[in-house]
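Design request, tokens follow.
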């Protein structure tokens, strides 16, 4: 079975336009409810969301679908994606749902599903849910007292905050640190500043006034200007920027210099290796991670294991082979000792623990390796398959030939939005620019 509806991170698109409609949400809930109804116990599903206006529409539609499928619904309100993964497992739910489009603008939305173990569903299970949707309801829906009930879980934020705080080493404090935390007007707007303050930091919260339409707008992990500006204004020691659903983290030091996910993985991997905490001599990352990370880890006899783009594929490889550190350059950091998915707050606390223990400023400790020159462009397209065009294929072959063994080229369609990403890296920055420009020009001619 192949998937048509689900992408690399659930279902995503423009809200109230197919497939992100109330009708779709209802059908997904009915199908997922049927897929995860196993046995005679009362089945439960945890539903969380970020702060988008369209979350109300999808939340109520999915609630109706799950109730009709005979599942009890536990509603958390706005919480980070990793909180929903954690609560699904902690509350012995059969399924978890996060309504979010992560780093996308507010008029997009999406649905991510978690199994009872707190992990994102496999491609095979997502395909099975799609097959159920295509076939319609093949069996009668429950009636009478077998219908589901819905209720709000008022202590869900507190449960998650205690869970996150327990990942910070006992006996350490963030006292003496002034931290800017940019919550992207998203799901972590309450919990992130609270966690940092309760651990002792002086907190400067920004982008913590969601209005339904300002999530990720000129703030957060994909737009770090606000965080960097506030570091300078307040003389902060560092800044933390989360994305809309807080599973991604980008950091800036006291000078405003941005530190990406590759540097964070290097910092944590080295620290954990020195402490004997690295489960295996390896870190799992995607094809987008910098060659500099690979060379740095190699100098420590730590392998860099690469996967396709998408944190779900990083997690799958970590689970299969027993690694406990992985992530993406974009800031999804997965630390499986604590969480089943990327968690921006837990990653931040691991970084802060290294700083507190070392007594160093982030500008000294945060740039662990020198990255190879790398350039990434995102090209929007409108229908069709530009990467199947003969001239585009020829441009890609020419680029690979030009870079040879001294560089890397990755050209791929995004799994979360209608763009093609072209990334090249290597020792020769001018050559990288020329390769990117040639391939981009070929794609633009086809994509319009």
């Amino acid at each position: 079975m192949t998937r048509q509806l689900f992408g690399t991170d659930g279902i995503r698109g423009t809200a109230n336009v197919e497939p992100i409609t109330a009708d779709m949400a209802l059908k997904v809930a009915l199908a997922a409810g049927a897929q995860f109804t196993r046995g005679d116990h009362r089945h439960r599903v945890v539903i969380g969301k970020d702060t988008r206006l369209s979350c109300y529409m999808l939340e109520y539609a999915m609630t109706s679908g799950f109730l009709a499928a005979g599942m009890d619904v536990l509603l958390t309100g706005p919480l980070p994606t990793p909180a929903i993964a954690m609560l699904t497992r902690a509350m012995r739910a059969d399924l978890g749902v996060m309504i979010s489009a992560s780093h996308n603008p507010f008029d997009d939305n999406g649905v991510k599903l978690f199994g009872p173990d707190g992990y994102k569903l496999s491609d095979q299970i997502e395909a099975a849910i799609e097959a159920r949707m295509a076939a319609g309801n093949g069996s009668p829906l429950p009636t009478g007292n077998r219908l589901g009930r819905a209720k709000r879980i008022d202590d869900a934020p507190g449960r998650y905050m205690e869970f996150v705080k327990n990942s910070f080493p006992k006996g350490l404090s963030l006292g003496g640190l002034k931290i800017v935390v940019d919550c992207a007007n998203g799901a972590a707007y309450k919990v992130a500043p609270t966690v940092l303050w309760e651990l002792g930091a002086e907190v400067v919260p920004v982008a913590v006034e969601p209005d339904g339409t300002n999530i990720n707008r000129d703030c957060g992990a994909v737009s770090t200007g606000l965080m960097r500006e506030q570091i300078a204004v307040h003389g902060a020691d560092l800044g933390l920027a989360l994305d809309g659903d807080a599973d991604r983290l980008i950091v800036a030091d006291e000078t405003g210099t941005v530190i990406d996910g590759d540097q964070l993985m290097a910092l944590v991997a080295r620290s954990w290796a020195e402490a004997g905490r690295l489960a295996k001599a390896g870190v799992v990352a995607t094809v987008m991670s910098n060659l500099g990370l690979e060379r740095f880890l190699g100098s420590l006899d730590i392998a860099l294991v690469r996967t396709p783009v998408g944190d779900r594929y990083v997690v799958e490889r970590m689970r299969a082979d027993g690694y406990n550190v992985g992530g993406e350059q974009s800031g999804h950091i997965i630390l499986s000792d604590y969480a089943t998915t990327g968690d921006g707050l837990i990653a931040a606390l691991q970084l802060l623990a290294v700083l507190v223990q070392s007594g160093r400023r982030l500008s000294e400790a945060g740039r662990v390796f020198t990255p190879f020159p790398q350039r990434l462009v995102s090209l929007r397209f409108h229908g069709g398959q530009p990467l199947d065009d003969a001239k585009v294929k020829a441009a890609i072959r020419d680029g690979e030939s030009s870079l040879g063994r001294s560089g890397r080229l990755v050209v791929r369609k995004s799994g979360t939005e209608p763009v093609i990403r072209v990334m090249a890296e290597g020792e020769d920055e001018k050559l990288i620019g020329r390769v990117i420009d040639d391939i981009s020009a070929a794609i633009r001619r086809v994509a319009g």
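Comment from the thread starter after seeing the answer: thanks! The chain has 14 helices and 18 strands.
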